[in-house]
């Protein structure tokens, strides 16, 4: 009885397998670090909410204080500093004024938390550039730049992510059953837990890699949108039917209109806040840029429609001299084109928030599988 000869691989299959092996070995440590830190960061918001009680207040049947009152309180704890952001949460959340700065050549970030109903100070927290250790800052620095200087680490992470996406495709080709037999498909879809260590390890790499493929691709592609402008441009071009991605800019104020508004005791920022609040009574959070950086910058207020997600938002812009409402492409999620909506969804898809807590849980497990693939792949090769 003759032994059955192994099916000879085609040249394309051999090239595919070679690419999968050596690209995997070359990028493995990057994929592992980026994936495992993604797991650790998945529930950053939930963990901070559980450990930092000053993030919450008791809901009250009264309106929030205006931005100017929060800024006045924050100024007492950050004298001489210029605020870079102001946030209102939902009815049970604290408000916060943020300050980006620089100290000894390093970036710093400090947040002043306050009661949005009274303006009362709750907590001062420095999460960037301070002497204390911030776990999630450590995690996100590893995720974004491998704990290297950002100008060095971020391109490396981007290249590693691009290679990872290629590996997912070559891995699918390797996974595909060579013969259309029931036994072949069974091996491709199930893990033989009672097999040898070598067999179980191979199945963990092969089978889990297949089951996580689509969601792992989603995580990789959304990461590439931040890593490379050319990739974001290409994705926008493909999803918009051939249109160019608009530059990340905003409408402009007209400095020639200075003095148009009558002088009174209510600041322009507060007036813009009240105008927005009248249009967004059900918003679950707001972000404001309290101080325009340039003379022609507008007042910007973002209204988030859902708690715990960022994509479903309406952006409001006002001329800082006349309070004339200004519009820009993609400033309302519900009215935006598919391509603009995908760009607005990018962060929420990347962290799983688009699916709420179950989505974050799914992203956690997919990231964990992604972290395991370089390990099991190395053991297959070893």
From TrEMBL:
Chain segments annotated as transmembrane: 21-43, 156-177, 208-232, 361-381
Keyword vocabulary terms for this entry: Membrane, Transmembrane, Transmembrane helix
One Pfam family, short name: PepSY_TM
Domain of life assignment: Bacteria
PANTHER family found in the cross-reference section: BLL7967 PROTEIN, IRON-REGULATED INNER MEMBRANE PROTEIN-RELATED
Entry protein name: Putative iron-regulated membrane protein
Native species: Cesiribacter andamanensis AMV16
């Amino acid at each position: 009885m003759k032994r059955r000869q192994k099916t000879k691989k085609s040249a394309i299959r051999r090239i595919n397998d070679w690419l999968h092996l050596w690209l995997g070995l070359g990028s493995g440590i990057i994929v592992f670090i980026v994936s495992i830190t993604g797991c650790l960061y998945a529930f950053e918001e939930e963990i901070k909410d559980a450990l930092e009680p000053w993030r919450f207040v008791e809901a009250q049947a009264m309106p929030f204080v205006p931005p100017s009152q929060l800024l006045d309180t924050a100024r007492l704890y950050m004298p001489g500093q210029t605020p870079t952001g102001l946030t209102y949460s939902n009815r049970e959340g604290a408000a916060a004024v943020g300050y980006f700065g620089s100290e000894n050549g390093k970036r710093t970030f400090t947040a002043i938390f306050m009661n949005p109903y009274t303006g009362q100070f709750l907590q001062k927290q420095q999460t960037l550039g301070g002497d204390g250790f911030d776990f999630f800052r450590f995690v996100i620095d590893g995720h974004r730049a491998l704990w290297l200087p950002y100008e060095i680490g971020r391109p490396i992470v981007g290249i590693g992510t691009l290679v990872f996406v290629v590996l997912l495709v070559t891995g699918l080709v390797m996974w595909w059953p060579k013969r259309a037999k029931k036994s072949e498909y069974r091996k491709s879809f199930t893990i033989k837990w009672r097999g040898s260590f070598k067999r179980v390890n191979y199945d963990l790499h092969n089978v889990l890699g297949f089951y996580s493929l689509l969601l792992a691709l989603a995580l990789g592609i959304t990461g590439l949108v931040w890593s490379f402008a050319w990739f974001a441009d290409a994705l926008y071009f493909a999803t918009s039917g051939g249109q160019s991605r608009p530059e990340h800019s905003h409408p402009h104020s007209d400095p020639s209109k200075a003095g148009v508004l009558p002088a009174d005791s209510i600041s322009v920022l507060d007036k813009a806040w009240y105008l927005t609040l009248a249009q967004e009574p059900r918003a679950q959070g707001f972000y404001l840029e309290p101080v325009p950086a340039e003379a022609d910058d507008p007042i910007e207020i973002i209204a988030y429609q859902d708690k715990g997600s960022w994509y479903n938002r309406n952006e409001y812009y006002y001329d800082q001299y006349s309070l004339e409402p200004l519009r820009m492409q993609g400033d309302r999620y519900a009215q935006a084109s598919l391509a603009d909506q995908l760009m607005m969804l990018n962060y929420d898809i990347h962290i799983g928030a688009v699916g709420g807590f179950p989505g974050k849980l799914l992203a956690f497990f997919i990231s964990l599988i992604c972290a395991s693939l370089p390990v099991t792949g190395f053991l297959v090769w070893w």
